Amino acid sequence: MSPGVLILIAMLGIGLLLFLVMGLRVQAFVALLLSSLFVAVAAGIPLNEIASTIQEGMGNTLGFIAIVVGLGTMFGEMLRVSGGAEQLANTLVRRFGQDRAQWALGLTGFLVAIPVFFDVGLIILIPLVYSLAQRTGKSLLYYAIPLTAGLAITHSYIPPTPGPVAVASLINADLGWVILFGAIAGLPAMVVGGVFFGKYIGGKIHVKVPEYMIIDAPEKEVAKEPPAFGTIVAIIAIPLLLILLNTVSGILLPEGNFVRNLLGFLGHPFTALLLAALASFYLLGTRRGYTQDEIQTIATKSLEPVGLIILVTGAGGVFGRVLVTSGVGDALAGVMAASNLPIILLAFLIATAVRVSQGSATVSMVTAAGIMAPAIEAGNYSAPMGGLITIAIASGATVLSHVNDSGFWLVSRYLGLSEKNTLRSWTVMETIIGLVGFLIVFVIGFFV
Predict the structure, then answer these.
(1) What's the DSSP call for residue 305?
(2) Residue 352: is it exposed, middle or buried by C-beta count within 10 angstroms (0-12/13-18/19+)?
(3) 219 exposed, middle or buried (CB, 10 Å; 0-12, 13-18, 19+)?
(4) DSSP conformation letters of 271-284
(5) Tens digits of residue pLDDT in 243-261
(6) From residue 173, how far is each of 107, 187, 242, 295 by CA, in Å?
């Protein structure tokens, strides 16, 4: 390996170390920008070109991310405010029956987290877990682990949540393949890590509903009237089916075909999510008595918490652009190619390393995708392989959640767990679902 390549890779290593150290003291957005500046200066990018490189990286990323995440957040908030998430959970528990409530909760988490962020989904649905645990006398973990497994998987695997959308944007992966492989890998992972492990750990650690949560349980907004179960499922399915149909039409139909062009328009993430947002405004809002002003207020409030997520994602795009412009990405791509490790395994390992060091699943996914992007571009991989690599990165960013992850403390508080028992339950569950998801896409990768 030439000294120049070693120097470039060393710069990347120092830049990442700088990001991780600063991330402990300042916000991740600032840490990513400062790390990008360091790599740019150290790699010799002319000073008068650094600003334009940052602008290009931020603009190219946010041009896609901001629209997708913004629209997804709006229809997710309508689902929350209308009581749709709770209606979905209650209906599934009734239909599955109390004996199979674990399966219902896992599936509920999987569906709800498609439009709703992990923490919001947990806060909305945890009262149902409390109720089941009190009614049956079983450990809270028996019901909470399947729910959190479903929420965590979709949070990392299925668009329009920010993580998979950001990775797909940075490595130019098709969202249809991401959704397909996310479901193929995510559902078995939910069963193994949520249902089976939840049953096991619920028998090992008996946890009652925390007294302080009975008092401090989050107040829920009272919906005018619960929306119908079929309406909720249809609204969630609209963008997913349209995006998948777009991907399938691109494979089966010739270029220029009218149906392919129509599905290409309707199935583009912008159009699909816009239709889902409009459907939620009407079906969950106007049709059920909400005024236009109330709907506007709900949609506006939904955007408040995503600003920081969008900026962090954009900073990840800056980091990736700097790697490409500086030549560090090409050097890293050469090293990866020489290692002879499968690209899916490399993606998983890099995302895991960042996850353990940094904590946030979304930031870990964005950072890993920025590092991997030049190697993926150089490899000229197929569209299905891009989807598999995206899920491999998501899997690595899911495993080994511990004390530097906000999700760790959120679960610990709502379940009344000590740090030790949170590690034994939540951390192990996260690791199981990440490993199962990775193993599935890793095996599929041999046939793609």
Answers:
(1) G
(2) buried
(3) exposed
(4) HHHHHHHHHHIIII
(5) 888 888 888 888 888 888 9
(6) 26, 21, 17, 33
DSSP 8-state code for residue 86: H
Residues 6+ apart with CB under 8 A from 368: 167, 347, 350, 351, 354, 393, 396, 397
Q: Which carries the bigger pLDDT value, residue 319 or residue 173? A: 173
- Per the CB < 8 A criterion, the answer to whether 386 and 172 are in contact is yes
Q: What is the pTM of this model?
A: 0.81
**Computed over its alpha carbons, how large is the radius of gyration of the chain?**
22
Question: How far is CA 130 from each of CA 25, 88, 119, 419, rounded to the nearest angstrom?
Answer: 36, 17, 16, 20
- Map residue 83 onto helix, strand or coil: coil
Nearest to 109 by CA among 65, 139, 154, 77: 154
Average pLDDT rounded to a whole number, residues 71-93: 83
- Amino acid (one-letter) located at 48: N
Cα 437 to Cα 181: distance, rounded to the nearest angstrom: 9
pLDDT in tens, 286-322: 888 888 888 888 888 888 767 777 777 777 778 777 7
- What count of Cα atoms within 13 Å lies in the side-chain half-sphere of residue 129? 33
> In angstroms, what CA-CA distances link 19 with 38, 258, 268, 316, 419?
10, 48, 34, 11, 26
Decide: 65 and 169 in contact? Cβ < 8 Å. Answer: yes
In 3D space, the residue among 390, 381, 12 whose CA is nearest the CA of residue 169 turns out to be 390
Nearest alpha-carbon partner for 121 in 90, 172, 85: 85
Other C-beta atoms lying within 10 Å of the C-beta of residue 344: 24
Torsion of CA 347, 147, 96, 208, to 10 degrees: 150
**pLDDT at residue 434 greater than cutoff 90:** yes
Residue type, 17: L
Q: Which of 229, 251, 233, 230 is nearest to 241 (CA)?
A: 233
Buried residues in 161-186 as b, exposed as e (16+ CB within 10 A): bbbbbbbbbbbebbbbbbbbbbbbbb
Report residue 87 as tokens. 């209606």
Distance CA 299, CA 190 (A): 30
